[in-house]
Design goal:
Blueprint lengths: L7 E2 L5 E3 L5 E7 L6 E2 L15 E4 L3 E10 L10 E8 L3 E8 L10 E11 L5 E9 L2
């Protein structure tokens, strides 16, 4: 087992996690037309610029749409909510919605939550993300 405190992200190019458990998603921004993308891209789909910047994405957004999953792999307890969140930067991100299925609603305000997802082969905590209600 390792003694490093460096957090391990389940998607290192898409999620940055600090030692204190906070973090943010990483996307691309086109400096030519201003389009944002998640996950990161090499080329802008709007203007075909190949000079995209890597940028931190906002933590807050609005639920665009969702589904309640009732049957899944044994690793996930059901039911759970999966949805698309329109972040405050003009980009849509899919993720698990950490809201009771009976209380979830399109248009609700959500915030990124960094959560432990398990451990890697070296015993380090692997961190992922979900979206939860704004507190």
């Amino acid at each position: 087992m390792t003694t490093t405190k460096t957090p391990v992200s389940f998607r290192p190019r898409e999620l940055v996690v600090a030692e204190d458990g906070t973090g943010h998603l990483v996307g691309s921004r086109c400096p030519t037309c201003g389009a944002h993308y998640f996950p990161t891209r090499e080329v802008c789909a709007g203007c075909l610029t190949e000079d995209l910047e890597t940028v931190p994405l906002p933590r807050r957004g609005t639920l665009y749409t969702y589904t309640v999953v009732h049957q899944s792999t044994p690793a996930f307890e059901t039911p759970y909510v999966l949805g698309y969140v329109d972040l405050e930067a003009p980009v849509r991100v899919m993720g698990q919605i950490d809201v009771d299925p009976e209380e979830v609603a399109i248009g609700m305000a959500l915030e990124l939550k960094i959560v432990p997802w398990g451990t890697d082969d070296e015993g380090r905590t692997v961190w992922g993300y979900r979206f939860g209600g704004v507190s």
